[in-house]
Amino acid sequence: MFKEKFEKGIKILFWMGWIIGTLIFLIATREKTWTNYALSLLVSFMYSFGYGLSNGLLNDFLDQKYPWLTHTKQRAITAIIGTLLLNFVMTYLLNYINLVMIQRVPSQDFFSSKYNFTNWFFINLALMVTAFMHARGFMLAMKEHAKEKIEEQKVIANTASAQFTSLKNQLDPHFLFNSLNVLDALIDEDPKKAQKFTHQLSKVYRYVLEQKDKEKISVQQELDFAKVYSELMKMRFEESLKIDLEQKNSFSSVFVVPLSLQLLLENAMKHNFATANNPLMIKVYQENNFLVVENNIQEREKLDHRQGIGLANIENRYALQSPNKVIIEKSETYFKVKLPLLEK
After folding, report:
1. How many helices (H) and strands (E) does the chain have?
2. CB 281 within 8 A of CB 270
3. Please, which contacts does 95-99 make with residues 24 or more away whose CB atoms are closer than 8 Å?
4. Is there a smaller number of Cβ atoms within 10 Å at the N or the C end of the chain?
5. Distance CA 344, CA 319 (A)
6. Could you tell me how far CA 86 lies from the centroid of its own chain?
């Protein structure tokens, strides 16, 4: 990288020196001889390479010591001071070589006021060119940084998208497995109800397939589905299950991750027993900027320590969608899950 940059810089300085030397020869030189042309090129190359290499090395040193993006203030100050000092010294050095050593101007004349304007002109010209070089370096650093950030965000977005897709793909077998368990129980208890359950299940599952690929869904749509799903579950639990779904006009303009209510309803029924005398009561309502799913606790005996994917799936999908976390509250009498409401 450094080698390519150096070679490119040498080519630019060479062409600058050749063009300027040729123009000086054609415009300012009275005697158009090959000797004078060679002398014009020699002087022009001396200035272009003298200023170019010295300022290029200073710029590279400052890039290493004080990068623009991380040490902007220090870089600006050192660049101004360093450029002033360097170009002051280089101007007097190059002008001395040109005027005193090549053109044979007496050294006492060079250091007199006679050549103050010449030195002042070259210093200002050099400062203009190097100021452009530093500004260009700053813009290139900003451009490279912006490019890196874009690439970084692309990687993050692609990773998040892959994670989200993976999490959504868990929903199909999870939902189907739990539904088939309910159907299996109904077949023994009530074959006719099992047949009706199968018919309703096909409608519900169609909704699952339609919505699972979305990243967000309105609370109202999710509540409508939860109502259908809860009716399906009541075919199994009858009076042992009571579900209260709050309805608000504002639910059409706020969003949650798809199938979150269905997973939380499943979660409540999975971990709690329900009887006619001690029904499982589930409430869904809004509390500030959260959609709350609350149920009374009637825990089943834990046959093993395995946990379902329902709640973890919701938490992980929310982590990819929003900085607001899912809140879980548990007491001796109730269990709450608070889903952050998302904007469109």
Report:
1. 10, 7
2. no
3. 95/119, 95/122, 97/46, 98/43, 98/46, 98/47
4. N
5. 16
6. 41
User: Which among 166, 197, 230 is the end of a domain?
Assistant: 166
Cβ-contact 298, 304 below 8 angstroms: no
Residues 6+ apart with CB under 8 A from 255: 216, 217, 218, 219, 341, 342, 343, 344
* Residues 31/105/20/54 CA torsion (nearest 10 deg): 160
Please give the biggest Cα pair distance in the chain. 119
Reduced 3-state DSSP string for 237-257: HHHHEEEEECCCHHHHCCEEC
Rg of the chain on CA atoms, in Å: 39
Is residue 298 included in any domain, yes or no? yes
pLDDT tens track for 173-223:
656 676 777 777 778 777 887 788 887 777 777 777 777 667 788 999 989
- What values do phi and psi take at 256, rounded to 5? -135, 170
**pLDDT classification of 157: cutoffs 50, 70, 90:** low
**Residue 237 belongs to a domain with what CATH number?**
3.30.565.10
Structural domain that includes position 244: 215-340
Q: Give domain status of residue 173, yes or no.
A: no
Q: How many CB atoms lie within 10 A of CB 108?
A: 9
Tell me whether strands 290-296 and 280-287 are parallel, antiparallel or unpaired.
Answer: antiparallel
59 Cβ contact list (under 8 Å, min separation 6) = 79, 133, 134, 137
| Enclosing H/E stretch for 190 | none
Question: Strand (E) positions, 119-235?
Answer: 217-218
What is the DSSP-derived secondary structure letter of residue 71? S
Last residue of one domain, picked from the residues 129, 148, 166: 166
Positive or negative, the Cα torsion across 154, 160, 166, 170?
A: negative
The count of other CB atoms within 10 Å of the CB of residue 5 is 11
Residues 6+ apart with CB under 8 A from 217: 211, 255, 256, 257, 258
Q: Is residue 179 part of a domain?
A: no
User: Do 16 and 121 share a domain, yes or no?
Assistant: yes
* pLDDT at residue 156 greater than cutoff 70: no
